[in-house]
Every structure is written in structure tokens, then in C-alpha cells.
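Input (structure):
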């Protein structure tokens, strides 16, 4: 049996990074599967997978395109621990094939850590670029099922740090440096792996969706699909939302932007610049974008997603401000808007599987909006399944 080693050009986490394990363990697992398994379960023991563990591939964990979903977890709010939990040991345990690398910055003398997977196979592979959320960094544990998916399906996986959590430091929060780091991570994957250029995918949750919109706006002809979950779209209005409720995000935004974003101030202009709203028109009509938002979200209100959709949609397909106000007041889809929804004609089995039924589904050109019964959440399988269907 021959197990080759990929040449990534990366700086591995240790000199003995798990490259052999990346290659040989899948072959060993396949061999054991063909022989009927290891047979090491004692009578009476449970076969229920532990938290974060991979489950056997069943009809429910494989879609019609043959994609495997090895994680038992369906949504980030039900993943073990807190949403912002981040540690390398958990990644090593649950996704040992994924390496830690360092990527030099093109904008300054810094370098950023990232989690990266490339099987090294010669075939051209899809690339899945995942951006961490607001209050954490590249080791965010809730993204482990996304990495496991990439490994199981022989996709290239990139999970960069881009200046870490948005904790008020000026270099964080969609700064020019953070955006440059995201671009560097994308370029690294393109330069070091065999990528199918028709299948480059971008996914972000919450603050990660804010940054995903920035990156998509700067590469509108590159991505085959962009999956956005509960996105922060306009930092100025989200600052106001959080300031009224005494949430920490307001202070973090103000610190990053140089002060409270009051109209007419430099801080307001800086916040507007860092908002995805400032550049989204560069992506409109050029890249497929699906926005999904829980209608009951109290962390990032769904109006953020509605305004993002409006700026991506054709003018005739936009949602009126009156309907947005009504939805925010009642937290239900207004009847006039529901009449436009195509959710009854679409297959949303993956949302139903996660107990998050779709309440509204709109399409306009290359833009889609889904409101589901839920809060500040991301559903793993619907996003991955949709991305897997997209091709440039």
C-alpha cells in the first residue's frame, strides 16, 4: 500500500504533522469497512456517537449528489459547548486530518494561523472557505462539522483567523487588514491545492457572514456560491440595536471604529466603510448568494438579512420597508410577503430535518433569502447541500 505525502508549502503545526494519518487512516478505514468492521464493541455497549463524533454514512447522512455528512450535529446552537468555544485539542480529536498552518500577510509583517485540509489527490477539488463568527477565532469548535464534511468528500478546507475575534481592536471587525488576511487565505488555497475553479465556495455565520460578503464583493467572478447565515450587514444599525439593549457588541463596534458611529462623525464613516453594505453592489447579479436567517433572532435581527437581500435583488423584487417593519414587530411573515414565497414549491427537507421549517423563500436573479423558524442559528446540512449544487 502506497501513501503519498502532499506538498503544501505550509508550516505545519509540528514537525510530525498528521500527514500520514490523513492518507493512511482513510485507506485503513475503508479496508476495515470492507472486512465488516473492527468488531471491538462489547455486548450491551451503546453505539451512540459521542459529542462531535462522526457517525456512519446512512441514507439520511448522504444526499442525492453523493455528498457525505459525517457529523451527527445539525445546527450550531445544539453543538456541544458555547458558540464561541475554540480550542485546538477538540479539532485534533474530531478532525485529526486538518492541519494548522501559518499564512504570511500581504498587508503587513504579520502572519495569520489557519486550519487547512488538502488530501493531496491529483483531481481538481472543490474549495470550502469558512469564516469564523464575531466573538471567536479560527479554532471555533462549531465549525468542526464543516471541516469533517470537507475531509469526507475530498474537498479542500480553509478556516483562517483574519485578525481573530472582533473584540474592539481596530485591526479586527472587517478592517482592511482583516480583509487582506481573508484574501491571503483564499490565495493560499488556490496556489497550493488542486482546485476546481468552477466550485469555489464561501460560508459565514453571523460576523463571519459580514466578512464573507466583503470577500465575495471583492471576488464576484470567483465564487460559485456564498452561503450566509444570520448575517451582520450594516454595522451602524447593528450598533444602535445593541446600544439600546446594553449588549457588548455596541462597545466593540465603537472601539473598532474609533467612537460611537453618530451621523456626521469619522466613526460613523468608518463603521459604514466596514459594513458589508458599502460594497455589496459589487457582488449583485454576479455571484449566487443564499441568505438564511432565523425569524426569532434577537442577536442579529432579521432586518439585517432583509436589507442585504434587497441590495442584491432586482428592484422589482425588493421587500418594502413597511413589510420589514411589520415583520420585525410581529416576528412573522406578513401575508403580502408570504404570497410571494416559493417555499411550498421548493425542497427544504434539510431544514425540516433540523426542526427549523422554512417560513419564507424568495429568489431574485442570483440572490436568495430564506427565513426559517429559529433564532441565531446555522444549519449545517442545508448550507453545504446548497453549496454543493452550485457551479460557475
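Output (sequence):
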Amino acid at each position: 500500500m502506497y501513501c503519498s505525502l502532499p506538498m503544501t508549502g505550509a508550516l505545519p503545526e509540528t514537525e510530525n504533522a498528521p500527514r500520514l494519518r490523513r492518507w493512511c487512516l482513510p485507506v485503513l478505514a475503508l479496508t476495515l469497512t470492507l472486512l465488516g468492521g473492527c468488531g471491538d464493541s462489547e455486548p450491551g455497549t451503546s453505539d451512540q456517537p459521542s459529542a462531535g463524533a462522526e457517525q456512519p454514512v446512512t441514507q439520511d447522512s448522504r444526499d442525492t449528489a453523493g455528498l457525505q455528512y459525517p457529523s451527527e450535529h445539525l445546527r450550531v446552537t445544539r453543538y456541544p459547548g458555547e458558540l464561541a468555544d475554540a480550542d485546538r485539542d477538540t479539532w485534533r480529536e474530531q478532525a485529526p486530518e486538518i492541519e494548522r498552518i501559518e499564512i504570511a500577510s500581504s498587508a503587513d509583517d504579520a502572519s495569520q494561523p489557519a486550519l487547512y485540509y488538502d488530501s493531496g489527490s491529483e483531481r481538481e477539488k472543490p474549495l470550502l472557505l469558512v469564516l469564523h463568527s464575531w466573538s471567536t477565532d479560527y479554532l471555533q469548535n462549531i465549525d468542526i462539522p464543516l471541516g469533517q464534511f470537507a475531509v469526507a468528500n475530498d474537498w479542500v478546507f480553509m478556516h483562517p483567523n483574519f485578525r481573530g475575534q472582533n473584540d474592539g481592536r481596530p485591526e479586527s471587525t472587517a478592517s482592511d487588514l482583516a480583509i487582506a488576511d481573508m484574501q491571503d487565505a483564499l490565495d493560499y488555497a488556490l496556489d497550493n491545492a488542486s482546485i476546481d475553479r468552477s466550485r469555489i465556495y464561501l460560508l459565514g455565520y453571523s460576523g463571519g457572514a459580514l466578512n464573507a460578503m466583503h470577500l465575495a464583493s471583492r471576488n464576484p467572478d470567483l465564487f460559485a456560491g456564498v452561503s450566509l447565515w444570520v448575517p451582520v450587514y450594516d454595522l451602524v444599525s447593528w450598533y444602535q440595536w445593541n446600544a439600546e439593549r446594553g449588549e457588548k457588541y455596541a462597545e466593540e463596534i465603537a472601539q473598532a471604529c474609533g467612537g460611537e458611529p453618530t451621523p456626521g462623525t469619522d466613526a460613523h464613516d468608518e463603521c459604514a466603510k466596514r459594513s458589508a453594505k458599502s460594497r455589496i453592489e459589487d457582488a449583485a447579479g454576479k455571484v449566487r448568494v443564499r441568505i438564511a436567517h432565523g425569524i426569532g433572532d434577537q442577536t442579529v435581527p432579521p432586518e439585517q438579512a432583509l436589507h442585504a437581500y434587497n441590495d442584491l435583488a432586482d428592484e422589482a423584487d425588493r421587500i418594502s420597508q413597511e413589510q420589514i417593519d411589520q415583520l420585525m414587530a410581529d416576528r412573522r411573515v406578513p401575508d403580502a410577503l408570504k404570497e410571494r414565497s416559493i417555499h411550498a414549491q421548493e425542497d427544504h427537507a434539510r431544514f425540516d430535518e433540523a426542526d427549523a421549517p422554512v417560513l419564507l423563500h424568495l429568489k431574485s436573479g442570483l440572490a436568495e433569502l430564506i427565513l426559517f423558524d429559529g433564532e441565531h442559528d446555522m444549519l449545517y446540512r442545508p448550507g453545504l447541500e446548497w453549496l454543493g449544487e452550485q457551479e460557475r
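Notes: The longest strand covers residues 195-205. Residues 1-59 have pLDDT under 50 and may be disordered.
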